[in-house]
Amino acid sequence: MRHARWLAPWKDSREKPAIYHCISRVVDRRFVLGDVEREQFRTYMRMYENFSGIRVLAYCVMSNHVHLLLEVPPMPADGLTDAELLGRLRAIYSESIVAEVEIQLTAARTKGLSVVAEEIHQRYTYRMHNLSQYMKTVMQRITQWYNRQNERKGTLWEERFKSVIVESGIAARMMAAYIDLNPVRAGMVTDPAKYRWSSYGEAIGGGAKGNAKKAREGLVRASMSHKDLGFDATKWNEVAKIYRKMLGVALERKSGEAKAQVTAFKNKRLAAVTQKSLQHREKSDPNSIKHDDNKTVLQEMKMAAMLGHRIRYFSDGAVIGSKIFVNETFAQAREKFSGKRKDGARKMRGAAESAAGILWSARDLRLQV
Predict the structure, then answer these.
(1) Whole-angstrom Cα distance, residue 123 to residue 252?
(2) 361 beta partners
(3) How many domains does the chain divide into?
(4) Is 336 within the bounds of a domain?
(5) What number of CA atoms fall less than 13 Å from residue 139's CA on the CB side?
């Protein structure tokens, strides 16, 4: 029997981001997603991102599965205006269909039929700001396209998608980097920047039909959402330096800068100088990103090495974040667990051991970790 998907209990909050790592695999795990299929998947992913209001923070389209790090904001408190609705519809519908909806809305407003206008809105808005609807629609569209191209019938995907609730901050940054490193772990490329069907590859190069600005906005948000930084592509250069260092550590090809930074953090004197320098820069440039303290950055650099390995917690852990975050999420979904269980946070083991005590999981995984 299927269980209801575990959604963030604060999914309707306007202050706390609801972030999910979603994974879907091709039926029988066949390697059928070639270059053309991956481009088409990205096209649908971006189309429905624009339609739904959901934002793609990071992604990677592999040969037989896909990873998406999604933020699902709530619907605006006052709903969408007619103009906003029509703008969303243009992302996935032809101009003739949008024009027809506009005529219907105009007629309803002119006659003072607000109930009719609201019904027109509801035809489309029920699919917006909804994780399951987004994933379902994207997967259905790529399946329909693939079946037409290959004269086949039936589903393309193995089962309903998996999802993991992810805390903003360190957990979201680590998850984004983990997703971008998929093609490296699979031996497809040696540098994630060279894989264009991923958020980092798109952010660096854009790809044939890519959108570097969208990809950069997503990674900036994934990296800095806990500091209330939105989808601001102008902060990409600052975020990219830290993000690239994390990827470099994971690849065990630390750049001179990355090595120097890790060494500096181990040396108290150099750490103090670094902190003073950061404070000076932040004072001189009020628009610069406020960096985490030295201890936090050092922790992240140490954890980054684990990203070169498969981390099962990131796909099956249910909730990933700090101990407080996992316990709070557990407490708000207490009915999902046995009455014998007293708390939610479980320490990570195996390849994720370097994150133990910093990142926690809601599931106590014991196999293939």
Answers:
(1) 51
(2) 320, 346
(3) 2
(4) yes
(5) 25
Element (H, E) at 301: helix 294-304
pLDDT at 200: 96
Joined tokens for residue 14: 């306007």
Give the pLDDT of residue 295: 52
Is 134 a domain residue? no
Using the CB atoms, write b or e for 270-279: b if 16+ within 10 Å.
ebeebeeebe
Structure tokens at 150: 């290959």
38 CB-near residues (< 8 Å, 6+ apart): 61, 197
60 lies in the same domain as 107: no
116/227 same-domain check: no
Domain of 181? 19-40+55-72+156-361
pLDDT at 342: 84
Kindly list the strands in the beta sheet with 319-321, ordered across the sheet, starting from the edge strand earlier in the chain: 55-61, 65-71, 19-25, 162-166, 319-321, 360-361, 346-347
How does pLDDT run across 12-46, given as a tens digit for each residue?
888 788 999 999 999 999 999 999 999 999 999 99
Task: Say if residues 315 and 3 touch (Cβ distance below 8 Å).
Answer: no
Read off the pLDDT of residues 163-202 as tens digits, 9 standing for 90 and up.
Answer: 999 999 999 999 999 999 999 999 999 999 999 999 999 9
| Residue 286 forms part of a structural domain | yes
Residues 98 and 232 in one domain: no
Task: Judge if 248 and 108 occupy the same domain.
Answer: no
Burial class (CB in 10 A: 0-12, 13-18, 19+), 280: exposed
What is the C-alpha separation between 30 and 63, in angstroms, rounded? 8
